Amino acid sequence: MALTHNLGFPRIGERRELKQTLEAFWRGDIDDKQLQIKAAELRRHHWILQREAGLDLIPAGDFALYDQMLNMTALLGAAPARFNAGNDEIGLDLYFAMARGTASQPAMEMTKWFDTNYHYIVPEFDAHTRFRIASSQLFREVAEAMALGISPKVVLVGPLTYLYLGKETEPGFNRLDLLTQLLPVYREILARLASLGVEWVQMDEPLLALDLEDDWLSALDHAYAALDGAETKLLLTTYFEAVDNHAARLKKLPVDGLHIDLCRAPDQLDIFLESYPIGKILSLGIIDGRNIWRADLAQALTTLSRAQSTLGERLWIAPSCSLLHCPVDLELETRLDSEIKNWLAFSVQKLQEVSILGQGLNQGQDAIREKLDASTRARQERRESPRNHNPVMQERLQRLTQNDSQRTSPFAVRQVLQQQRFQLPDLPTTTIGSFPQTSEIRQARAAFRKGEIGNLQYLEAMRKEIQLAISKQEEIGLDVFVHGEAERNDMVEYFGEQLCGYAFTENGWVQSYGSRCVKPPILHGDIYRPESMTVDWIQYAQSQTTKPVKGMLTGPVTMLMWSFVRDDQPRSTTALQLALAIRDEVADLERAGIGIIQIDEPAFREGLPLKKAAWNEYLKWAVEAFRVSSSGVKDDTQIHTHMCYSEFNDILPAIADMGADVITIETSRSRMELLDGFGEFKYPNEIGPGVYDIHSPRIPETGEMLELLEKACKVINPKQLWVNPDCGLKTRSWPEVVTALERMVEAARQLRAQINISQTETISA
């Protein structure tokens, strides 16, 4: 009998209940007991949903109040010493302090979880790091599941992945040296789980999808040899890419089973089936955990049947990875077009697909014939639907030439013309784009969507918010303004709503980090922009000030990566379609007199393949897409882009090749470490390293921002530097924003004075 299981379930709730509860707790509206009660209710509901889907094994330990890597830091007692953790149990105060910072300590770094839009809290390691079981939360959750009659498969981030995704905080220290003292704590955790009656532990080791150096591979052998003989069975779990280059090593590991991702890497099955060890489970991730399209059940069943002929009862069936990256339940979508809805599967439906495939293997195809036929019809209807094909866009793609991705003059020429046009000071100050999304803004937008207010009332409400944003920036003394994005619900969804080829959900939320959720639009067909999307708003903002106001757009790669993207054509083709739509908007903004246009690409690094062998192909089309979107402007029009929460140093040549006049990046959590690579590379254009972390309620003092800027000046010529926050400010309140930006502007003024004094002294000497 093939066994069905899940690797992880979305934790946020069908209607973002976890987000609302967390933010109520952070505001002080509820206490920690009420927070824990609501979290337990969510876990119970999710376990019941999975049981009703017909799964044989249901995960526990996949829930987190903020992040699964932060959960491991708490469980392992690895809180950085700077938080004064001591030896007590790590409770909620310390847990959230690590994620969000305190009055005296900035939050731990946050970066992307492999090639997803999920952000994890980066562990910090030094020679003084010590491990111990410091949280009982996991064991309480296991007891909760047991009380429901569920014998859970517990999910842990594996020891190698936990260390690999962390960072050293002292020079010359190697975090891999911590493995020897880490492993006994993992054994202790496994023993405690076994004492609770846990049979299976899912040990997630997605680092195996990366290009690993020999010392990490040797450490893998050592780690699982040390865990051999644990009282629980171990399912070593990989996902997001092929791991067939490690197949021989993985087959030899002393674990009870392996999980591989057949959605991202279907061709790796054969090498694992060959001489697969007798007595070891092979779990196949056959249902896509990263996208929302219905599975081809007939094709999946064919693949599984071939595997079953070799494995017999040692075959397990699962989604490719945790369903953290998918919305919860398609049945909640009551307004979605019925034709498009029939093409989709959210988390609950994906688990039903897993269960159907298990039923087909165990009872024969006739037992699921009706469901197989429905799956085949849905895929055929999607393939043939005229709403997915636009001959005008397809013809326009064919007409693209190399000239369409080239600016008229090199940056050195453009820089002079732009300085003459805008007359900006050294170290110009700006923000990344959004200002606080207040309750008044959200209420006005909701009322407009519901038809409770008309176009004119909505226009007046949004213009009032734009006026407020402009007046605040005037008072603060910024050099380059933004309109604040009051009219925008999300940086991708807002644009997708105005493009042909997109569809939208009511409750298709996925977690980005902490309480931050996004609702990726569904990119199902060829992209076409019927009319301008932002010009009226930006033009109005510019009419309110003599300072330059940036036009704010989302770039083609980010539009692609932060959508549920179609899988029936290459991503490169879809990216170019998006690039052409954005190019048209850029041209309209320029014609309207907007001289600075920001095309955000925070997902550019996220899209990079996990294996370096595939980097060049991706970077070629990703850079081309950005250049197509941005190159149709005059030399004195300044193009900005923004990137955040990623490691950029290994792709700096490609970032430079994008050709943006100014790039802004997140650097404050790393205290400008991310900027070092730009200095070593000698980044040729202008750059704005973020000087404070907008995801934390902590507001740094002027001196702290000045210190970061001084560090930046040591690696980047001050003539190239801009001064800005790490990211957009939509999640912060106006009092926080005003205080932080006033301090930022003051830090820039002080540094300008220092530079001028230094230059004067040099001339005098």
Taken together, the total number of domains comes to: 3
Q: What is the mean pLDDT?
A: 94
User: Roughly what fraction of the amino acids lie in strands?
Assistant: 5-15%
Largest sheet: 8 strands, parallel
Using the alpha-carbon principal axes, give the shape. Answer: globular
Look at the helices and sheets and give the structural class. alpha/beta
Output the number of helix runs.
27
CATH names the topology of the largest domain as: TIM Barrel
Architecture of the largest domain in CATH?
A: Alpha-Beta Barrel
Helix content: 40-55%
Q: If you compute it from the alpha carbons, what radius of gyration comes out, rounded to the nearest whole angstrom? A: 26 Å
Uncertain spans = none
CATH class of the largest domain: Alpha Beta
Number of strands: 22
Q: What is the spatial order of strands in the main beta sheet?
A: 1-12-11-10-9-8-6-2
